[in-house]
ADP-dependent (S)-NAD(P)H-hydrate dehydratase (Candidatus Enterococcus courvalinii), 1100 residues
Amino acid sequence: MILDEQLLREVITKRPSHSHKSTFGRVVLIGGNQQYGGAIIMSALATVNSGAGLTTVITDEKNHAPLHVHLPEVMVADWCDQATCLTAIQQADVVLIGPGLGTSAFSLGLLQTILEVQTKHQWLVIDGSALTLLAETKLSLPYPEHTVLTPHQMEWQRLSGISIAAQTDHSNQEKQNELGAITVVKSHQTTIYNKENIYYNQAGSAAMATGGTGDTLAGMITAFLAQFPKNDHTVAAAVYLHSLIGDHLAQTHYVVLPTLISQAIPQWMAHFCTE
Amino acid sequence: MILDEQLLREVITKRPSHSHKSTFGRVVLIGGNQQYGGAIIMSALATVNSGAGLTTVITDEKNHAPLHVHLPEVMVADWCDQATCLTAIQQADVVLIGPGLGTSAFSLGLLQTILEVQTKHQWLVIDGSALTLLAETKLSLPYPEHTVLTPHQMEWQRLSGISIAAQTDHSNQEKQNELGAITVVKSHQTTIYNKENIYYNQAGSAAMATGGTGDTLAGMITAFLAQFPKNDHTVAAAVYLHSLIGDHLAQTHYVVLPTLISQAIPQWMAHFCTE
Amino acid sequence: MILDEQLLREVITKRPSHSHKSTFGRVVLIGGNQQYGGAIIMSALATVNSGAGLTTVITDEKNHAPLHVHLPEVMVADWCDQATCLTAIQQADVVLIGPGLGTSAFSLGLLQTILEVQTKHQWLVIDGSALTLLAETKLSLPYPEHTVLTPHQMEWQRLSGISIAAQTDHSNQEKQNELGAITVVKSHQTTIYNKENIYYNQAGSAAMATGGTGDTLAGMITAFLAQFPKNDHTVAAAVYLHSLIGDHLAQTHYVVLPTLISQAIPQWMAHFCTE
Amino acid sequence: MILDEQLLREVITKRPSHSHKSTFGRVVLIGGNQQYGGAIIMSALATVNSGAGLTTVITDEKNHAPLHVHLPEVMVADWCDQATCLTAIQQADVVLIGPGLGTSAFSLGLLQTILEVQTKHQWLVIDGSALTLLAETKLSLPYPEHTVLTPHQMEWQRLSGISIAAQTDHSNQEKQNELGAITVVKSHQTTIYNKENIYYNQAGSAAMATGGTGDTLAGMITAFLAQFPKNDHTVAAAVYLHSLIGDHLAQTHYVVLPTLISQAIPQWMAHFCTE
């Protein structure tokens, strides 16, 4: 199907009045090493602005202060503090791993831990460096049906073994069926594969081709899964909204900074929210 | 009584022209450990934007830099620096303890100190982790009639021993009379108990169900007590304004970030200020 | 004289087209200890937004990061690094000392250094803690006619020995003549004394009675002296503009945060700028 | 030629729809010591807002946190970490060195490294302290035809040996031909020299005469070279847009802070973008 605004109206439903912050999900975001701390900050901005109930960011201690400047709304944990991290992870409804994670042995250790402790009640979103690690190590996903992969075309090549030129719907879908995870192949026209479903995103523009756009999308997908039904429809809605906001901003901005997209999310979600 | 705008007009009075910053109260905020620093930052944003005269934040040293980014208007003290903290606390008109405080032995030590040094001229607001500590330790309040408790329903269950299902006006009021402190029981419909008075808050919405909303409310209550008459009416006005701003923002925002509420406070207070 | 907009039009003149950043003065701001770092940040925001050409802030190293978040436009020096600080100070046209300086032996040492190295080509603005130190130590001013003091009434009592109740124009002017420095006595109605001149500020409101308002004024005075004729007229213009902006913001804000005043300065200066 | 809006329309072209972040260039910015960290932050703000695809900032570790507050969009590297820095530099399409670099032996070492590793496929922009170092050491440029120098008049005097009074088109052009690099001589009326071409910038105003304006320009030039044809036309377009935005802001701001210019870039680029 071709993504459209109708999907947003279906997914973004009115919040129940008898609710509290836990109603909208506990989210854990893991990433941001000494060099790429901005990536996990951008994911967190997207997650919180998309309405996740409670967000904890597990990252290098160096990133805590800038993160709290952007978002006093999140909790933080030093990714060297195993006990605190494990507690946060075990309480999570959705875990995102990858933005700015890096590909060191330490990063790999974190990914392995996540794959080991994931329960069948939890969803996992794998993005950025974590996809590269997954491709290199051939680690298997414990709950592929509760997993979302968000590779851009080059990362998908590494992960699937399909060269960019050979990435057709047929080959991608075949590989998705083998892997089992909902797969968001990002390009100038992002496509989402899940079993027999293919979602085509015709929104999005070259103004969004700048560092951090993918980190923002990963954060949005995570927050949508935390509050709305956990399925490919919800993932597709996050992808479409991300591009739709970008297109709107691109009318007046030559380059659309990812942080600008995140700022705009609450108002766009209100716009599409159905009674 | 049902909270309404008339209450705001009564409480938010025009500032006397012959005044200076001390006229509007000295406030000390205590909280924010290594993991939950954002909580005390959000309380501080609410306190300063609500008009407290002079605000000192006692928190983990790690939180000082992000706090000063958000608010160069506050003074800071490292919560390990006992002498400086004690001086600040002794000069305070109102002390808030709890947002992001944590429940470690160190956190408990801070709470015990506050309960020991409080004088009859000072008001105390107890929020967040400090309520959990209070429930666990059964510490007694030195001046309950100068104390405000702000539990959400689960914290109130821990503190009062009344299960959420059994939290009726009758049982809550009975317990409040026993404890003696003004008690703000937060839920999708917050209620305030003090002696024979019950204040019902019908404002507020599910868009506010996100991490930090309670920290913001605690900061507003603290600032209102610092400048306006120190009583349950003033506490109720802070509760109502917090929800009213949230409702207004929820018309255009699917999720209302707590920092957005704080930004809007000075303009809403001007709106309701009576000559 | 009573301060009015005409004074602003006289002082805020159009910048010469053949100019560069040095044309508008080199400024050094000294203050901000471990506890009061926000004060020097607020002074710096005022200084830069008021148009000083090049600004260096000498402060505790702890304050550098939050300062650079607020103002990448400034240069910083660790106040423990004597050589770097001395170089910056010697190149300055105007030096401000005091906001958040504290009253430790180290702070006093800094003040003594400034009073020792000041040359007759430099102006000095003394504010906040530095006034308290001056009152305690009776240090003498090397160039009083190139010095501005900005005490609030209590600081003026300490400095002048005149109790607040006895602070009349007559007594204040007499003491100013003795001290020799331009003296800005801050209260709900600030008055400026210099020789036979008295300037009355009838602007300003109780909405500005919050921590940081004085630090902001000190920064504005410093920047005005850096670019405009170095005299009491220019100091008075800064005082008046500060209050005028505050009054404007107070129409819509119950409390006017000092950082909001600083943000508004460039537009207000453009408004009053004469051809 | 006299710079005008037509040049902007020629240079700022519509982005190809089949593109990704690498399409718009990998940029490395080098500068920002312990004292002048704000300079490289301002360059980075200009670079990212001008549309560079992927930006890495190599700077003193002290500047990482404030940089990530301003721009989570950038990657960072500690300039003491040689291996990481070298990898980033080797992948860059355009390198900027100089803003806030300082003139220490360490700074010189960084400049020497850059001049040693530059390949013929890379462009180099040399600004600020790096120009002073270049003047002192007479280091030679490996690829002058792929180099841009951005001295203000005093830096140009040091570099060229031509005193400010003697800086005429004739003398400047002669020296440019000798050096071989595109030379942007900044003054109240900036002029760009390259072989037989001279570009006159009649835009810009004294409101821009404040610390950081040059750092911002250097960042814009770098981003323009990263995405548009690498030549003097593109450099000239960046210079003109910088002044044009400044002039527009100067209509309402007595002093135009450099960070304000950067914020406005995406919208101005959209305005001039041709189909």
User: Anything to note?
Assistant: The beta strands of chain D are 26-30, 54-59, 75-78, 94-97, 123-126, 147-149, 182-185, 191-194, 197-200. Chain D has a mean pLDDT of 97. The radius of gyration of chain D is 17 Å. The first strand of chain D starts at residue 26 and ends at 30.
